[in-house]
Design goal:
The protein has 9 helices and 2 strands. By secondary structure, it is an all-alpha fold. Strands 1-2 form a two-stranded antiparallel sheet. Strand 1 and strand 2 form a beta hairpin. Helix 4 packs antiparallel against helix 5, helix 7 runs antiparallel to helix 8 and helix 8 runs antiparallel to helix 9. About 20% of the residues are buried. About 10% of the residues have low confidence.
Length: about 270
């Protein structure tokens, strides 16, 4: 009996050893689990590598964006400087023309007065005067106009607008009124207050139809209408500049804007 039990134990032990020594097959649950873990680990490693590569690309793009932003800011600064220099040049030329016109008017007035009354000495003021009230100082319309122009040249548009508005109220018959009305509109245009600018430029055309500022005012009317999306009105104003004042800078600029509108489908 003991021999039989001992023999059975030996057989069982041999089976166990044999089972332990056998290599697990592909369907073994442990091996299946290990394969799944290996696959997941591989995917995670690839994802980490991809993320690292993407992070490098993002950093590179961020650097490019910073460089582009710096370049854009430099270009904007240069454009602002060019625009300011052009505005100053325009204002300087305008001021010189006004001085020449004023001198011509004064000479003509003196000539007519000397012919009418040759034996009398007549003194005619070249411009209207007004008392400030604060210190009883008198300033003429030319000084008031130049003060407003100086503010505009300095880029102090709000203060310039107030000065031009005051000038137009105090000196409605001044020889500078048409110019003041135009530059009053310009203070609104450069600050993108297009409805207010449009009204002021329209007054130049309607109130001072013989003014040398009419072509420029019509051009700016077209520009304001363009910015406000009034395509038909813009086209009409710009076409009028081109037709009625063909040899002016305003006409050249009007044609360029009309071409731009055509390209944009307006």
């Amino acid at each position: 009996m003991n021999k039989q039990i001992r023999g059975g134990g030996l057989v069982l032990l041999a089976l166990v050893v044999s089972a332990c020594a056998t290599t697990p097959g592909p369907d073994d649950p442990v091996m299946v689990k290990l394969d799944q873990l290996e696959a997941r680990l591989s995917r995670i490693e690839r994802a980490v590598q991809n993320q690292a590569a993407m992070a490098g690309q993002v950093q590179g793009l961020a650097g490019d964006m910073r460089q582009l932003r710096g370049s854009v800011e430099e270009v904007q600064h240069e454009l602002e400087g060019i625009s300011q220099r052009q505005r100053n040049l325009y204002l300087d030329v305008d001021g010189r023309l006004q001085k020449l016109e004023g001198s011509a008017r004064a000479t003509g007035n003196r000539t007519r007065q000397s012919i009418a009354t040759p034996s009398q000495s007549v003194t005619t003021p070249s411009a209207a005067t007004v008392s400030t009230g604060a210190d009883d100082q008198e300033i003429n319309d030319r000084d008031a106009y130049q003060a407003a122009i100086a503010l505009l040249r300095e880029g102090r548009y709000q203060q310039a607008a107030e000065k031009f508005e005051q000038f137009l109220s105090q000196y409605p018959e001044s020889q500078f009124s048409d110019n003041a009305q135009y530059w009053y509109g310009e203070t609104f245009y450069v600050t993108r207050k297009f409805p207010e600018a449009l009204v002021s430029f329209q007054k130049v055309v309607s109130v001072y139809p013989s003014s040398q500022k009419v072509p420029d005012a019509l051009l700016k009317i077209g520009y304001c209408d363009y910015e406000l999306g009034y395509w038909d009105a813009a086209r009409a104003a710009l076409t009028r500049v081109s037709n009625e004042y063909p040899d002016t800078t305003a006409a050249h600029l009007a044609k360029r804007r009309l071409e731009q509108m055509s390209g944009e489908g307006h």
